[in-house]
């Protein structure tokens, strides 16, 4: 399996419902002097980031961003270094104060929350997993995991019981009594993950949690996240600058550039229908056949094609279709509930791989 291939078939994932967990509208975060004047001034918002900095001394880290995070999805925020990912995600729980715009969690206005409500938001509802773990060095694994519960005032016996459960869930059984210094980087990250999970938050926020890990451990941790998500269906917001990580984990990806979201879509939409030249360049080297599905690659079936040839589910990848078509020598049918939605043949599949066939409507 290459790094871009998703670890779970999309059909095995829980479909997200339509109630947004986070709802963000016209969000701005401007750093610098008199930051508030920037979003309100059309002349300033029209400037490039460099011009804005020269004219005002301000950096617009997040520029007029709107999106919903749906219940049960893995929402990835991706972009190069400095594109505004961390600032955006920190604004969700006001670890960074937004300059303007609205943020709601389950319909509740986050910007109107007082200190105690915010504390409750960060402790119970939206827990963050950091790149540098944030572990307490003198505490054992179990006590580090129980820490969030301790802050919540959960009694010792109960918090140790719950901590032991999540320690097992993230594969650290037997290491409960070690201290962080006695663990590998990957194991420490699992402790960080367990600590966030222990408080049973509605949404987990990951700030580039795996970027310091070596590639093999990183892949293990990505698979761990996919597994946890499959088992629990918990909403996750995941920051990464790594495209293959984004494609592997994300149900939807918000691709950021200079503080703006330049495209928001499924991995398939981002790779198959890039919104502009920047996105196209970004995804140029992605093996398209591993991301695009036959649902978008298929064409209409002729009368004699609809009842013969190998059958594929609509979410089968083009890569799987190539195998099926090569094996049978005939076009493959895309079937749903016993109905033939369309077919994919040699020509169509090669066109998708080569990038000459634009995925989209059934022709
Ligand atoms: N406290 C701050 N004061 C001034 N500028 C800031 C501050 N924090 C971030 N910035 C600027 O805002 C922009 C976005 O930064 P941010 O850290 O959100 O990007 P990022 O995409 O998360 O980058 P990375 O992947 O390197 O963490 C950058 O230009 C950064 O220099």
From TrEMBL:
SUPFAM superfamilies: P-loop containing nucleoside triphosphate hydrolases. One of its GO terms (molecular function) is ATP hydrolysis activity. It comes from the Bacteria. GO terms for biological process: glycine betaine transport; response to osmotic stress. CDD domains: ABC_Pro_Gly_Betaine. One of its GO terms (cellular component) is membrane. InterPro entries: AAA+_ATPase (IPR003593), ABC_osmolyte_uptake_ATP-bind (IPR051921), ABC_transporter-like_ATP-bd (IPR003439), ABC_transporter-like_CS (IPR017871), Gly-betaine_transp_ATP-bd (IPR005892), P-loop_NTPase (IPR027417). Keywords: ATP-binding, CBS domain, Nucleotide-binding, Transport. Belongs to the ABC transporter superfamily. PANTHER family: GLYCINE BETAINE/PROLINE BETAINE TRANSPORT SYSTEM ATP-BINDING PROTEIN PROV (PTHR43869), GLYCINE BETAINE_PROLINE BETAINE TRANSPORT SYSTEM ATP-BINDING PROTEIN PROV (PTHR43869:SF1). This is Glycine betaine/L-proline ABC transporter ATP-binding protein. It comes from Streptomyces ferrugineus. The lineage of its organism: Bacteria, Bacillati, Actinomycetota, Actinomycetes, Kitasatosporales.
């Amino acid at each position: 399996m290459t790094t871009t291939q998703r670890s779970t078939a999309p059909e095995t994932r829980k479909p997200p419902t339509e109630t947004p967990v986070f709802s963000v509208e016209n969000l701005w975060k401007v750093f610098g002097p008199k930051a508030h004047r920037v979003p309100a001034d059309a002349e300033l918002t029209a400037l490039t980031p460099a011009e804005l900095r020269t004219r005002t001394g301000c950096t617009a880290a997040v520029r007029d961003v709107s999106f919903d995070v749906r219940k049960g999805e893995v929402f990835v925020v991706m972009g190069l270094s400095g594109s505004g990912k961390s600032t955006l995600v920190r604004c969700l729980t006001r670890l960074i104060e937004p300059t303007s715009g609205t943020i709601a969690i389950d319909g509740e206005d986050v910007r109107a929350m007082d200190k105690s409500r915010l504390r409750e938001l960060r402790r119970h509802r939206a827990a963050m997993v950091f790149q540098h773990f944030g572990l307490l060095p003198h505490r054992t694994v179990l006590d580090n995991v129980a820490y969030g519960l301790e802050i919540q005032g959960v009694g010792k016996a109960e918090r140790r019981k719950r901590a032991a459960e999540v320690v097992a869930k993230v594969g650290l059984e037997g290491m409960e009594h070690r201290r962080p210094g006695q663990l590998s980087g990957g194991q420490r990250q699992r402790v960080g993950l367990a600590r966030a999970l222990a408080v049973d938050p509605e949404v987990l926020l990951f700030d580039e949690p795996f970027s310091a890990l070596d590639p093999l451990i990183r892949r293990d941790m990505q698979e761990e996240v996919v597994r946890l998500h499959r088992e629990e269906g918990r909403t996750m917001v995941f920051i990464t600058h790594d495209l293959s990580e984004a494609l592997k984990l994300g149900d939807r990806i918000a691709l950021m550039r200079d503080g703006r979201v330049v495209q928001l879509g499924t991995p398939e939409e981002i790779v198959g229908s890039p919104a502009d030249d920047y996105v196209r360049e970004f995804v140029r080297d992605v093996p398209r056949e591993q991301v695009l599905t036959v649902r978008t690659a298929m064409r209409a079936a002729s009368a004699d094609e609809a009842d013969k040839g190998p059958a594929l589910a609509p979410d089968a990848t083009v890569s799987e279709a190539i195998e099926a078509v090569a094996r049978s020598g005939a076009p493959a049918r895309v079937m749903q509930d016993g109905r033939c939605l369309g077919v994919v043949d040699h020509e169509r599949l090669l066109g998708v791989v080569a990038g000459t066939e634009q995925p989209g409507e059934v022709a």
